[in-house]
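Example with several molecule types.
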Amino acid sequence: MRNTTSELVDKIEQGALADAVNLLQTINDARNRDLYQQVGQLTRALHDAIRDFHVDTRAAVDQDKTLSEMADATDRLNYVINLTQNAANRTMDKVEECLPIVSELGKEAALLRNEWGRLIRREMKPQEFRDLYRRIDTFLVETERQTDVLSGNFSEITLAQDYQDLTGQVVKKVITLVHEVEDSLVHLVKMASQVDRITGIQPKDTDKNTEIIDKQIPEGPVVNAEKRGVDVVSGQDEVDDLLSSLGF
Amino acid sequence: MNKDMKILIVDDFATMRRIIKNLLRDLGFNNTHEADDGLTAIPMLNAGNYDFLVTDWNMPGMTGFDLLKHVRADPDLKDLPILMVTAESKREQIVAAAQAGVNGYIVKPFTAAVLKEKIEKIFERIQK
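Resulting C-alpha coordinates for the full complex:
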Protein backbone atom coordinates (compact mmCIF):
# COMPACT_ATOMS: atom_id res chain seq x y z
CA MET A 1 0.00 0.00 0.00
CA ARG A 2 2.95 2.27 0.76
CA ASN A 3 4.43 1.70 -2.71
CA THR A 4 1.11 2.42 -4.34
CA THR A 5 0.75 5.63 -2.32
CA SER A 6 4.17 7.02 -3.35
CA GLU A 7 3.37 6.03 -6.95
CA LEU A 8 0.07 7.93 -6.60
CA VAL A 9 1.87 11.07 -5.43
CA ASP A 10 4.27 10.78 -8.40
CA LYS A 11 1.39 10.36 -10.89
CA ILE A 12 -0.47 13.37 -9.46
CA GLU A 13 2.71 15.51 -9.63
CA GLN A 14 3.18 14.35 -13.24
CA GLY A 15 -0.46 15.30 -13.98
CA ALA A 16 -1.40 11.72 -15.05
CA LEU A 17 -4.90 11.88 -13.50
CA ALA A 18 -6.30 8.74 -15.15
CA ASP A 19 -3.45 6.66 -13.73
CA ALA A 20 -3.89 8.34 -10.33
CA VAL A 21 -7.61 7.39 -10.19
CA ASN A 22 -6.74 3.80 -11.10
CA LEU A 23 -4.18 3.71 -8.30
CA LEU A 24 -6.74 5.11 -5.82
CA GLN A 25 -9.06 2.25 -6.82
CA THR A 26 -6.29 -0.27 -6.14
CA ILE A 27 -5.68 1.19 -2.68
CA ASN A 28 -9.39 1.05 -1.91
CA ASP A 29 -9.69 -2.55 -3.08
CA ALA A 30 -6.75 -3.60 -0.93
CA ARG A 31 -8.29 -1.93 2.12
CA ASN A 32 -11.68 -3.56 1.53
CA ARG A 33 -10.15 -6.98 1.00
CA ASP A 34 -8.25 -6.70 4.24
CA LEU A 35 -11.30 -5.50 6.15
CA TYR A 36 -13.59 -8.22 4.76
CA GLN A 37 -11.02 -10.84 5.64
CA GLN A 38 -10.73 -9.62 9.21
CA VAL A 39 -14.49 -9.32 9.63
CA GLY A 40 -14.80 -12.84 8.25
CA GLN A 41 -12.32 -14.17 10.77
CA LEU A 42 -14.07 -12.34 13.57
CA THR A 43 -17.46 -13.76 12.58
CA ARG A 44 -16.03 -17.24 12.58
CA ALA A 45 -14.42 -16.77 16.00
CA LEU A 46 -17.58 -15.21 17.41
CA HIS A 47 -19.61 -18.14 16.16
CA ASP A 48 -17.22 -20.57 17.83
CA ALA A 49 -17.27 -18.61 21.08
CA ILE A 50 -21.06 -18.59 21.17
CA ARG A 51 -21.19 -22.28 20.34
CA ASP A 52 -18.82 -22.97 23.23
CA PHE A 53 -21.28 -21.23 25.52
CA HIS A 54 -23.37 -24.39 25.42
CA VAL A 55 -26.39 -22.42 24.31
CA ASP A 56 -28.36 -24.32 21.73
CA THR A 57 -29.45 -21.61 19.30
CA ARG A 58 -31.87 -23.99 17.59
CA ALA A 59 -33.79 -24.29 20.83
CA ALA A 60 -35.00 -20.72 20.41
CA VAL A 61 -37.32 -22.12 17.74
CA ASP A 62 -38.76 -24.72 20.04
CA GLN A 63 -39.32 -23.01 23.38
CA ASP A 64 -40.41 -26.20 25.10
CA LYS A 65 -37.05 -27.82 24.62
CA THR A 66 -34.30 -27.50 27.17
CA LEU A 67 -32.75 -24.22 26.12
CA SER A 68 -29.14 -24.90 26.89
CA GLU A 69 -26.67 -26.63 29.08
CA MET A 70 -27.08 -23.64 31.36
CA ALA A 71 -30.68 -24.63 31.95
CA ASP A 72 -29.44 -28.15 32.49
CA ALA A 73 -26.94 -26.86 35.05
CA THR A 74 -29.75 -25.07 36.88
CA ASP A 75 -31.71 -28.32 36.97
CA ARG A 76 -28.65 -30.08 38.32
CA LEU A 77 -28.19 -27.53 41.08
CA ASN A 78 -31.88 -27.76 42.00
CA TYR A 79 -31.37 -31.50 42.19
CA VAL A 80 -28.55 -30.88 44.68
CA ILE A 81 -30.85 -28.73 46.82
CA ASN A 82 -33.57 -31.39 46.76
CA LEU A 83 -31.19 -34.20 47.56
CA THR A 84 -29.56 -32.39 50.48
CA GLN A 85 -32.95 -31.29 51.80
CA ASN A 86 -34.32 -34.84 51.65
CA ALA A 87 -31.22 -36.17 53.39
CA ALA A 88 -31.53 -33.58 56.15
CA ASN A 89 -35.21 -34.42 56.63
CA ARG A 90 -34.61 -38.17 56.61
CA THR A 91 -31.86 -37.75 59.20
CA MET A 92 -33.98 -35.53 61.43
CA ASP A 93 -37.00 -37.86 61.11
CA LYS A 94 -34.90 -40.76 62.34
CA VAL A 95 -33.34 -38.75 65.15
CA GLU A 96 -36.81 -37.65 66.24
CA GLU A 97 -37.89 -41.31 66.27
CA CYS A 98 -34.90 -42.25 68.39
CA LEU A 99 -35.21 -39.51 71.00
CA PRO A 100 -38.40 -40.74 72.76
CA ILE A 101 -37.12 -44.34 72.71
CA VAL A 102 -33.89 -43.35 74.43
CA SER A 103 -35.75 -41.15 76.86
CA GLU A 104 -38.21 -43.95 77.79
CA LEU A 105 -35.42 -46.49 78.30
CA GLY A 106 -33.52 -44.00 80.43
CA LYS A 107 -36.55 -43.22 82.58
CA GLU A 108 -37.43 -46.86 83.15
CA ALA A 109 -33.78 -47.67 83.97
CA ALA A 110 -33.71 -44.84 86.54
CA LEU A 111 -36.94 -46.11 88.17
CA LEU A 112 -35.64 -49.69 88.26
CA ARG A 113 -32.30 -48.58 89.73
CA ASN A 114 -34.24 -46.86 92.50
CA GLU A 115 -36.25 -50.02 93.23
CA TRP A 116 -33.11 -52.13 92.95
CA GLY A 117 -31.50 -49.93 95.61
CA ARG A 118 -34.43 -50.58 97.92
CA LEU A 119 -34.01 -54.31 97.34
CA ILE A 120 -30.30 -54.14 98.19
CA ARG A 121 -31.05 -52.15 101.32
CA ARG A 122 -33.65 -54.85 102.17
CA GLU A 123 -36.46 -52.31 102.26
CA MET A 124 -38.65 -54.32 99.91
CA LYS A 125 -41.72 -56.34 100.78
CA PRO A 126 -42.11 -59.78 99.09
CA GLN A 127 -45.01 -58.60 96.88
CA GLU A 128 -42.97 -55.55 95.74
CA PHE A 129 -40.06 -57.84 94.95
CA ARG A 130 -42.29 -60.02 92.75
CA ASP A 131 -43.43 -56.86 90.89
CA LEU A 132 -39.82 -55.76 90.45
CA TYR A 133 -38.92 -59.22 89.18
CA ARG A 134 -41.55 -58.92 86.42
CA ARG A 135 -40.63 -55.30 85.61
CA ILE A 136 -36.99 -56.18 85.16
CA ASP A 137 -37.94 -58.98 82.81
CA THR A 138 -40.18 -56.65 80.77
CA PHE A 139 -37.45 -54.00 80.76
CA LEU A 140 -34.83 -56.40 79.42
CA VAL A 141 -37.13 -57.62 76.66
CA GLU A 142 -38.06 -54.02 75.80
CA THR A 143 -34.41 -52.89 75.83
CA GLU A 144 -33.45 -55.64 73.44
CA ARG A 145 -36.32 -54.78 71.08
CA GLN A 146 -35.73 -51.02 71.21
CA THR A 147 -31.96 -51.26 70.66
CA ASP A 148 -32.79 -53.10 67.44
CA VAL A 149 -35.01 -50.17 66.43
CA LEU A 150 -32.23 -47.75 67.38
CA SER A 151 -29.52 -49.51 65.43
CA GLY A 152 -31.88 -49.73 62.44
CA ASN A 153 -32.40 -45.97 62.63
CA PHE A 154 -28.69 -45.32 63.00
CA SER A 155 -27.88 -47.23 59.85
CA GLU A 156 -30.62 -45.31 58.02
CA ILE A 157 -29.05 -42.06 59.25
CA THR A 158 -25.72 -43.24 57.88
CA LEU A 159 -27.34 -44.18 54.56
CA ALA A 160 -28.98 -40.76 54.34
CA GLN A 161 -25.48 -39.31 53.93
CA ASP A 162 -25.18 -40.91 50.48
CA TYR A 163 -26.21 -37.55 48.99
CA GLN A 164 -22.59 -36.42 49.47
CA ASP A 165 -21.41 -38.72 46.69
CA LEU A 166 -24.26 -37.89 44.30
CA THR A 167 -24.23 -34.14 44.85
CA GLY A 168 -20.43 -34.13 44.62
CA GLN A 169 -20.59 -35.61 41.14
CA VAL A 170 -23.29 -33.20 40.01
CA VAL A 171 -21.52 -30.16 41.42
CA LYS A 172 -18.27 -31.20 39.72
CA LYS A 173 -20.07 -31.31 36.37
CA VAL A 174 -21.46 -27.84 36.92
CA ILE A 175 -17.99 -26.59 37.89
CA THR A 176 -16.63 -27.93 34.59
CA LEU A 177 -19.37 -26.13 32.69
CA VAL A 178 -18.69 -22.89 34.54
CA HIS A 179 -14.99 -23.14 33.61
CA GLU A 180 -15.84 -23.74 29.94
CA VAL A 181 -18.23 -20.82 29.89
CA GLU A 182 -15.61 -18.64 31.55
CA ASP A 183 -13.11 -19.54 28.83
CA SER A 184 -15.67 -18.70 26.13
CA LEU A 185 -16.39 -15.39 27.82
CA VAL A 186 -12.72 -14.48 27.89
CA HIS A 187 -12.58 -15.40 24.21
CA LEU A 188 -15.60 -13.18 23.49
CA VAL A 189 -14.04 -10.26 25.31
CA LYS A 190 -10.90 -10.66 23.17
CA MET A 191 -13.08 -10.72 20.03
CA ALA A 192 -14.89 -7.60 21.11
CA SER A 193 -11.64 -5.73 21.65
CA GLN A 194 -10.51 -6.70 18.13
CA VAL A 195 -13.79 -5.48 16.64
CA ASP A 196 -13.25 -2.19 18.45
CA ARG A 197 -9.71 -1.97 17.11
CA ILE A 198 -10.63 -2.63 13.45
CA THR A 199 -13.70 -0.43 13.37
CA GLY A 200 -12.16 2.27 15.54
CA ILE A 201 -15.04 2.25 18.04
CA GLN A 202 -14.14 3.86 21.35
CA PRO A 203 -16.05 2.20 24.17
CA LYS A 204 -17.80 4.73 26.39
CA ASP A 205 -16.35 5.08 29.83
CA THR A 206 -18.81 3.47 32.14
CA ASP A 207 -18.70 4.92 35.57
CA LYS A 208 -18.55 1.91 37.80
CA ASN A 209 -19.06 3.96 40.92
CA THR A 210 -22.48 5.29 39.99
CA GLU A 211 -24.18 2.41 41.75
CA ILE A 212 -24.46 3.57 45.31
CA ILE A 213 -24.79 0.77 47.79
CA ASP A 214 -27.51 1.96 50.13
CA LYS A 215 -28.82 -1.49 50.88
CA GLN A 216 -27.07 -4.33 52.60
CA ILE A 217 -27.14 -6.96 49.88
CA PRO A 218 -26.92 -10.48 51.27
CA GLU A 219 -24.27 -12.67 49.69
CA GLY A 220 -24.71 -15.98 51.47
CA PRO A 221 -21.99 -17.99 53.16
CA VAL A 222 -18.41 -16.81 52.62
CA VAL A 223 -16.57 -19.85 51.27
CA ASN A 224 -13.02 -18.47 51.40
CA ALA A 225 -12.90 -16.42 54.59
CA GLU A 226 -9.09 -16.72 54.78
CA LYS A 227 -8.65 -15.01 51.43
CA ARG A 228 -11.24 -12.35 52.16
CA GLY A 229 -9.16 -10.87 54.95
CA VAL A 230 -10.58 -8.37 57.38
CA ASP A 231 -13.98 -7.58 55.89
CA VAL A 232 -15.53 -10.85 57.04
CA VAL A 233 -15.60 -12.51 60.43
CA SER A 234 -14.30 -16.06 60.77
CA GLY A 235 -16.75 -17.25 63.38
CA GLN A 236 -19.08 -16.53 66.28
CA ASP A 237 -16.23 -15.32 68.53
CA GLU A 238 -15.40 -12.53 66.11
CA VAL A 239 -19.08 -11.59 65.80
CA ASP A 240 -19.27 -11.36 69.59
CA ASP A 241 -16.09 -9.25 69.74
CA LEU A 242 -17.40 -6.91 67.06
CA LEU A 243 -20.78 -6.53 68.75
CA SER A 244 -19.24 -5.95 72.16
CA SER A 245 -17.04 -3.23 70.62
CA LEU A 246 -20.33 -1.63 69.55
CA GLY A 247 -21.63 -1.75 73.10
CA PHE A 248 -23.62 -4.99 72.93
CA MET B 1 -37.35 -16.35 80.91
CA ASN B 2 -40.84 -17.45 79.94
CA LYS B 3 -40.66 -20.88 78.31
CA ASP B 4 -44.16 -20.46 76.87
CA MET B 5 -43.23 -17.37 74.90
CA LYS B 6 -44.43 -17.27 71.32
CA ILE B 7 -41.54 -17.47 68.85
CA LEU B 8 -41.53 -16.89 65.11
CA ILE B 9 -38.78 -18.61 63.09
CA VAL B 10 -38.16 -17.06 59.66
CA ASP B 11 -35.94 -18.88 57.16
CA ASP B 12 -36.45 -19.79 53.51
CA PHE B 13 -34.99 -23.28 53.99
CA ALA B 14 -37.43 -25.66 55.66
CA THR B 15 -34.52 -27.74 56.95
CA MET B 16 -33.00 -24.81 58.82
CA ARG B 17 -36.42 -23.89 60.28
CA ARG B 18 -36.76 -27.45 61.49
CA ILE B 19 -33.28 -27.46 63.03
CA ILE B 20 -33.93 -24.20 64.89
CA LYS B 21 -37.39 -25.43 65.96
CA ASN B 22 -35.85 -28.64 67.33
CA LEU B 23 -33.08 -26.79 69.14
CA LEU B 24 -35.61 -24.41 70.68
CA ARG B 25 -37.73 -27.38 71.74
CA ASP B 26 -34.68 -28.93 73.42
CA LEU B 27 -34.27 -25.65 75.29
CA GLY B 28 -37.89 -25.94 76.47
CA PHE B 29 -39.56 -23.56 74.00
CA ASN B 30 -42.50 -25.31 72.41
CA ASN B 31 -44.59 -22.38 71.22
CA THR B 32 -42.79 -21.91 67.88
CA HIS B 33 -44.20 -20.83 64.53
CA GLU B 34 -42.62 -20.60 61.08
CA ALA B 35 -42.48 -18.26 58.09
CA ASP B 36 -40.38 -18.56 54.94
CA ASP B 37 -39.48 -14.90 54.38
CA GLY B 38 -40.12 -11.35 55.58
CA LEU B 39 -43.27 -10.95 53.53
CA THR B 40 -44.99 -13.94 55.09
CA ALA B 41 -43.61 -13.06 58.52
CA ILE B 42 -45.09 -9.55 58.72
CA PRO B 43 -48.80 -10.52 58.65
CA MET B 44 -48.08 -13.23 61.23
CA LEU B 45 -46.32 -10.73 63.49
CA ASN B 46 -49.16 -8.24 63.07
CA ALA B 47 -51.79 -10.87 63.84
CA GLY B 48 -50.44 -12.47 66.89
CA ASN B 49 -48.57 -11.30 70.01
CA TYR B 50 -45.15 -12.72 69.30
CA ASP B 51 -42.54 -12.48 72.06
CA PHE B 52 -39.45 -13.31 70.06
CA LEU B 53 -38.32 -13.34 66.42
CA VAL B 54 -35.53 -15.53 65.05
CA THR B 55 -34.71 -14.67 61.45
CA ASP B 56 -32.33 -15.52 58.66
CA TRP B 57 -30.92 -12.67 56.54
CA ASN B 58 -30.71 -13.94 52.96
CA MET B 59 -34.23 -14.79 51.79
CA PRO B 60 -36.18 -14.16 48.58
CA GLY B 61 -39.11 -11.77 48.75
CA MET B 62 -38.07 -9.81 51.80
CA THR B 63 -34.73 -10.25 53.53
CA GLY B 64 -34.28 -10.56 57.27
CA PHE B 65 -32.50 -7.20 57.31
CA ASP B 66 -35.52 -5.49 55.75
CA LEU B 67 -37.78 -7.37 58.16
CA LEU B 68 -35.65 -6.10 61.05
CA LYS B 69 -35.96 -2.51 59.83
CA HIS B 70 -39.71 -2.96 59.24
CA VAL B 71 -40.28 -4.27 62.76
CA ARG B 72 -38.26 -1.47 64.36
CA ALA B 73 -40.22 1.12 62.36
CA ASP B 74 -43.62 -0.31 63.35
CA PRO B 75 -44.93 1.26 66.59
CA ASP B 76 -46.74 -1.97 67.57
CA LEU B 77 -43.76 -4.25 66.94
CA LYS B 78 -40.71 -2.08 67.61
CA ASP B 79 -39.85 -3.64 70.99
CA LEU B 80 -39.89 -7.23 69.73
CA PRO B 81 -36.56 -8.93 70.53
CA ILE B 82 -34.89 -10.12 67.32
CA LEU B 83 -32.15 -12.71 66.94
CA MET B 84 -30.51 -13.00 63.55
CA VAL B 85 -29.22 -16.44 62.57
CA THR B 86 -27.44 -16.10 59.24
CA ALA B 87 -24.53 -17.05 57.02
CA GLU B 88 -23.87 -13.36 56.32
CA SER B 89 -20.52 -12.70 57.93
CA LYS B 90 -19.29 -9.37 56.58
CA ARG B 91 -18.30 -6.98 59.37
CA GLU B 92 -20.17 -4.24 57.56
CA GLN B 93 -23.37 -6.29 57.66
CA ILE B 94 -23.05 -7.15 61.33
CA VAL B 95 -22.53 -3.47 62.13
CA ALA B 96 -25.54 -2.54 59.94
CA ALA B 97 -27.72 -5.11 61.73
CA ALA B 98 -26.59 -3.80 65.11
CA GLN B 99 -27.35 -0.24 64.08
CA ALA B 100 -30.77 -1.33 62.78
CA GLY B 101 -31.50 -2.64 66.27
CA VAL B 102 -30.91 -6.38 66.24
CA ASN B 103 -30.70 -7.97 69.72
CA GLY B 104 -28.39 -10.83 68.85
CA TYR B 105 -26.42 -12.13 65.86
CA ILE B 106 -25.42 -15.74 65.22
CA VAL B 107 -23.40 -16.81 62.19
CA LYS B 108 -24.14 -20.16 60.57
CA PRO B 109 -22.99 -22.84 61.05
CA PHE B 110 -23.80 -22.59 64.74
CA THR B 111 -24.16 -24.88 67.75
CA ALA B 112 -26.99 -25.53 70.22
CA ALA B 113 -24.83 -24.00 72.95
CA VAL B 114 -24.41 -20.72 71.04
CA LEU B 115 -28.17 -20.47 70.43
CA LYS B 116 -28.88 -21.06 74.11
CA GLU B 117 -26.28 -18.51 75.22
CA LYS B 118 -27.55 -15.78 72.88
CA ILE B 119 -31.21 -16.27 73.82
CA GLU B 120 -30.36 -16.15 77.51
CA LYS B 121 -28.27 -13.04 76.99
CA ILE B 122 -31.04 -11.27 75.07
CA PHE B 123 -33.68 -11.89 77.74
CA GLU B 124 -31.29 -11.17 80.60
CA ARG B 125 -30.66 -7.76 79.05
CA ILE B 126 -34.35 -7.07 78.45
CA GLN B 127 -35.29 -7.93 82.03
CA LYS B 128 -32.73 -5.47 83.42
